[in-house]
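Project standup — Tuesday

K.O.: blocked on the structure for the chain from last sprint. Re-posting the sequence here as requested.
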Amino acid sequence: MKKLTLALAISLAAPNFAAADSVGGCGLGSKIFHGQRGIAAQSLAITTNGFYGTNTFGITSGTLGCEQNGVVQSNWKVAMYLDNNLNRFAKDVSVGEGETLDSLASLLGVETADKDEFAKALKDNFSTLFSSADATSQDVVAGLFAVLNDSNSLAQYTANL
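H.V.: unblocked you, prediction finished:
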């Protein structure tokens, strides 16, 4: 009986773990807790989606902020890289060149022809990437997404964010 209960708990929790990266990206939970930050809001959004099964409904119906042709993606590699290199990355961005900047460009798949423009765009928008002295890697990823999306030629690289 304990094994059955454990298996059921894991199978019910699995969609929540899968959605954790997008913090309830679509579904009823994302609508109810839209714009809220923190562990409680994220947990409640994901739990609401899992409990009511609204992600599945939203995806199949194209409602609740879900897209039927959406792409499953994760920015965990970029966030993890920035977690470990944030200070060095900030220094490299401030001067527009450096090893961590080159490594991030490679991680995002930036083509050689676009690397100079990539470095310049980040340098010119340093205050967007590092909006405060205590900016987190999540803040930098959000700023990076905004900066790249503002450029017609660099927007293609946001697919990896």
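K.O.: great, moving the ticket to review. Residues 4-23 have pLDDT under 50 and may be disordered. Residues 18 and 24 are 9 Å apart (CA to CA).
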